[in-house]
Specification:
Helices cover about 45% and strands about 20% of the residues. The chain has 17 helices and twelve strands. Its EC number is 2.7.7.7.
């Protein structure tokens, strides 16, 4: 607990970020039930205003269902370029003001103010930073100040929208105790259902369960859950560095004109870095393919796409690029795939025009890859290349 005693972490979260941006662009939407997301029959809700939430609408819900629940809601097609632009604006304000911060998502930040209490005062500093963000971006933002990332995040969620709160060191358990267990990050529906069946409804009750019992019930996650329920979190604030691209290349053992083999390699490579993209909670807006021929001459081509992290979309774009690029019919020595124009975002809520079924499929696939390794689950068309890496001459 010595580490926590010396820390002051502010968690800042832009209130209904997508909706707030749309309200800036169209002030007539303010105070109205607003749905942001895909406009197709299979689109999902990416975000919704607080007025829409009163009708039971939430992120990830099929757009058609949301429109039935609130027939008078304003539906706006998502514009990720605009959201990314406003996110960069807020990021720049924070970057200019504080020495150490973590950008957890497109609209969420952790700021390490450790030591600031001796000079300026962490609460006053956080309050002035909030006012500057509102002044320069026009967006509403809330923050929670506490001794660690966990408590500051929960505090922010409790005070939204347009709120601020400080949880002094030593008061973490007092603050968390009356809250529902579902307010603890990491407690999903499955774990929550198990605990609720046992009569564990509040964080206070959860914190009093012996750690061995939680381990027997939930395995290793039970140990971490016990720490969270007691307000303990020693995770550091990870310094923000904007990654420009994600890429991979493959040099063949034998130069080849075997198009089937090359396509298999491209599928495997695209799947690999698309998974990495989703792990980093990012989307790409530009795809590039590189070819190096046997004479070492190298060519590259790229295309701008709608922001995505879905394998099926990216694989199709990579194939199109390769087809248009490979015109010489010479032996190929190397192929490469690169994603650029990266922005924060998650495929669960940001793939605006995809169906719930495709979202759940990708979530399930990523869960298996995270547990057992990406090589244990891949498309059959890409698996052939892995099993037989030697191309036909």
């Amino acid at each position: 607990m010595l580490l926590s005693a010396a820390r002051h972490i502010t968690h800042m979260d832009l209130d209904t970020f997508f909706v707030s941006v749309e309200c800036l662009r169209n002030p007539k939407l303010k105070g109205k039930p607003v749905l942001i997301g895909g406009m197709s029959d299979r689109g999902v809700v990416a975000s919704c205003s607080y007025e829409a939430r009163k009708f039971g609408i939430h992120s990830g819900m099929p757009m058609k269902v949301a429109q039935r629940l609130c027939s008078h809601a304003y539906t706006v097609k998502s514009d990720y370029e605009a959201y990314s632009s406003y996110s960069r604006l807020v990021t720049d304000v924070i970057s200019d003001t504080v020495p150490l911060f973590e950008k957890a998502s497109i609209d969420e930040f952790y700021i390490d103010l450790t030591g600031m209490d001796k000079f300026f005062g962490c609460l006053q500093f956080s309050d002035e930073l909030k006012r500057r963000i509102i002044r320069e971006s026009g967006l509403s933002i809330s923050y929670g100040l506490a001794s660690n990332k966990l408590v500051s995040k929960v505090a922010t969620n409790e005070i939204k929208p347009n709120g601020q709160i400080e949880i002094p060191f030593g008061n973490e358990k007092t603050f968390l105790s009356p809250l529902s267990i579902m307010k603890i990050p990491g407690v999903g529906k499955e774990v929550g259902y198990k605990l609720l069946k046992m009569g564990v409804e509040t964080v206070k009750i959860l914190s009093e369960i012996p750690v061995n019992m939680l381990y027997n019930l939930l395995g290793k996650p039970g140990i971490e859950l016990h720490r969270k329920a007691n307000g303990i979190d020693e995770m550091p604030v990870i310094p923000y560095r904007e990654q420009k691209s994600i890429s991979t290349e493959e040099t063949f053992s034998t130069d080849t004109i075997d198009l089937k083999f090359i396509h298999q390699e491209l599928i495997r490579m695209t799947e690999k870095i698309a998974f990495e993209l989703r792990l980093q909670r990012r989307l790409t807006g530009c795809v590039a393919v590189k070819i190096r021929y046997s004479d070492f001459q190298t060519e590259q081509k790229q295309m701008t796409i709608d922001y995505t992290a879905f394998d099926n979309v990216l694989i199709q774009k990579v194939k199109e690029l390769f087809t248009s690029l490979y015109t010489k019919r010479q032996l190929v020595r190397l192929v490469g795939v690169r994603f650029t124009d990266l922005i924060g975002g998650t495929h669960q809520i940001d793939m605006f025009n995809d169906s719930q079924e495709s979202l759940k499929l990708h979530q399930a696939m990523d869960s298996i890859k995270s547990q057992y390794g990406e090589k244990y689950l891949m498309r059959a068309s890409g698996n052939s290349a892995t099993n037989n890496r030697k191309p036909m001459a």
